[in-house]
Amino acid sequence: MFEGFTTQRIATEGAELLVRRAGEGPPLLLLHGAPQTGAMWDRVARRLAGDFQLVVPDLRGYGASSKPPADPGHAWSSFRAMAADQVQLMRALGHERFALAGHDRGGRTAHRLALDHPHVLTKVAILDIVPTLHVFEHVDQQIATSYFHWFFLIQPEPMPERVIAGAPLDWIRHSLGGLGTGREAFAPEALAEYERCIQDPGAIHGLCEDYRAAATIDLEHDRADRGRPVTCPMLVLWGANGVVGRAYDPLAVWREHATDVRGRALDAGHYLAEERPDETAAELAAFFG
Description:
Blueprint: E1 6-11, E2 16-22, E3 27-31, H1 42-48, E4 53-57, H2 79-92, E5 98-103, H3 105-116, E6 121-127, H4 132-137, H5 141-146, H6 148-153, H7 159-166, H8 168-177, H9 188-198, H10 201-214, H11 217-224, E7 234-239, H12 243-247, H13 250-254, E8 261-266, H14 272-275, H15 277-288
Parallel strand pairs: 3-4, 3-5, 5-6, 6-7, 7-8
Antiparallel strand pairs: 1-2, 2-4
Helix pairs in contact: 1-15, 2-3, 7-10
């Protein structure tokens, strides 16, 4: 994967991130979701590297980046901390302003970054989510069933960690095979990367801490910013066959949280970049280009 990309480690104030880089043109940061790594962007990155200077990290807590220390308040794993990582990372690479696309947890990091650091973003693309606060404030049986992992992973440690550690490959395969996307959509190399990473106890803990933060400190931040919109142009893409496409009107929801929103559904489940890489890349290229 990532043929032609260079790989390095870059330290931020609170973590050390694995980063892949390639391409020419304006800088574009690509952020992955859970339970994945930056590997999810491989197919899309191949299609964008001719037009953009791509930066593809593993988020803190995931992949080959730093894993969370003991943190009863979960601040280390908050989207605010993840967003600050990305600003510091891009600055270290010489990019004071940049475009950003984020899927799943990467999309939530992008939303927080757009609120905390609006001056650094030229445009932002959000893939297959609605805002975290909206999810928690509109839970029904459909969401509780489809997003059961949200409510399992936020339980106090070490119970979720022990359950996943008992059958990590079952967990990752179930996670990737749900939400409207079949496991056949994933490249074997990417699937092997996700399977390898989930067997690391630090990565399991990082996954749980991400979701614990989302249910605690991230909600505090989101409530404090209620009514303050994202002001840069926003592209919203979602899978028509996934939870977001079935449960929400994504454009209507995001227009309550941003001033300039456009987007559409793709014929996919949750994992757009791997199930529909050509369409996803084309949408991103048109928007950012």
